[in-house]
Design goal:
Layout: H1 2-15, H2 17-23, E1 33-45, E2 56-69, E3 74-95, E4 103-125, E5 130-146, E6 162-163, E7 166-177, E8 182-191, E9 196-197, E10 204-215, E11 220-232, E12 238-250
Antiparallel strand pairs: 1-2, 1-12, 2-3, 3-4, 4-5, 5-7, 6-9, 7-8, 8-12, 10-11
Amino acid sequence: MVWRKIAGGVVALALCLPLLVHAAGKPDGKLFGVRLGAQIANLITDAHWGPYPDISGPGGVLSVDFSHGFTDNFYLHTALGLDFRAYYTHVEMGIACDGDCGGAWDGDEIYSYLYLEVPVMAQWRTSVLFFEAGPVVDVMLLSDKEYVIPERYRGQSDGCYDDKRFGAGVVAGVGHVFDFGLSIDARVLFQFTDVVDGGKKCLTSHSEEVEMRFDPETEETTTRVLWESDEYMGGSYYKLLKYQIGIGYWF
């Protein structure tokens, strides 16, 4: 499952530590840091619905960080992190029809993603707080989608788009570094590239009203469609806005 893939990614990230230590540098002699963050990732779109089961989902990030101090106050802070995002919703659906079709389904629909995320931030430090901002890029490493509804009964939004493997945005944060190396921070990240690619214009919603009649003599049920319509439900943009809090330690 996806958690085994995540564990593999953590191992791969750990193997990069020697390279980061070699490249890192801080005036106070601490070479590199590690950071663990929790986040909420929100989809920003003008569509009636989005490509995820829900418009927002929880997640987290694990990164190795390094910075270079140009002055006592100005630093360049970069990181290499694994960013996990999950979107889910509870689905209940029942379909009844003649022949070998229909059924009832109840469960959670879950989309899970793992990204490699690289922020590059200019950081200004005071005696109390630090402020940082800069560009960030990410690359999708893994994706896993668990559906409740069988494929032939899903909405027309499925298959209309592909998850974009590369993203770019901006990140800004504020935090504090204690003298003994512990750090706490809060960040906001906005991804200005779409999270989906491909035929976004095929997102439609199908509505219909069906009349069902039961014949007691033949014991057969017949259906008749009274009306039906298709409405375009797609949007022109699918951006991402993340809120994150983190805790780290500088060695």
